[in-house]
Amino acid sequence: MKRNLLLLLLVGFVIAGSGCSIFDPFFIAVNIEGLSGRYNIDMSDPAALTYDESVTVLASDYLNPDFSGDIEDVSIYDITVQTEGDYTGSVNGEVWASYPGAPLTLIATYSGNWDVFKTPQSLLQALLGNNPNIIPQLGALGFLVGGINAEQDITLSSTGFVSQSSAATNLFVIVAVFGQVLAAP
Predict the structure, then answer these.
(1) Which residue among 7, 70, 97, 184 is the one 20 to 30 A from 170 at the CA level?
(2) pTM
């Protein structure tokens, strides 16, 4: 009886079509690694409280070369802004991105006490309404997805200012992009 029921189900799937076949593509989720920038805030000139730094990350550095040319889809699941170094003021800035053939695009703005940013501040949490320190720009994630999907070198920039001069050295703002690509093996 059980055998007849299984046979009937199998025949039903064959007649109706099960929606998958051995010819459906197989994809692997591969993490995007190293798509980040670390920007120095030079306090050697006490009057200069601004910074404007850019880092170009080669596609071969943030994408696994084993899957070059085989990317089917891209997902960005977070962008973080973090500070490094001892400073008692606040930091205010913008995160920008560009890639060959595309305009410089604003990704997010950030503002808050330096110490708050010592813990990475999440763009995802801002999108969920849980992080007032970062304001994402609508459509910016789609811009980044387009560059990654086209396997372009990405330039990440951070511009901004700090609230007061300091004798502190080794002050940095760090921007990191976290995501995955779906690639055909």
Answers:
(1) 97
(2) 0.82
Let me know if residue 159 belongs to a domain.
Answer: yes
pLDDT of residue 30: 86
How many structural domains is the chain composed of? 1
What's the gap between Cα 84 and its chain centre?
A: 19
20, pLDDT greater than 70: no
CA distance 33 to 59: 10
Q: Which domain holds residue 110?
A: 26-183
Q: For residue 57, give the CATH number of its domain.
A: 2.60.120
Q: Average pLDDT for residues 53-66, to the nearest whole number?
A: 91
Q: Rounded CA gap, 142 and 8, in Å? A: 47
Q: In the predicted model, is pLDDT for residue 89 greater than 80?
A: yes
62, 107 contact by CB (below 8 A): no
Position 14 scores a pLDDT of 47
**d(Cα 139, Cα 123) in Å, to the nearest integer?**
13
Residue at 98 is within a domain: yes
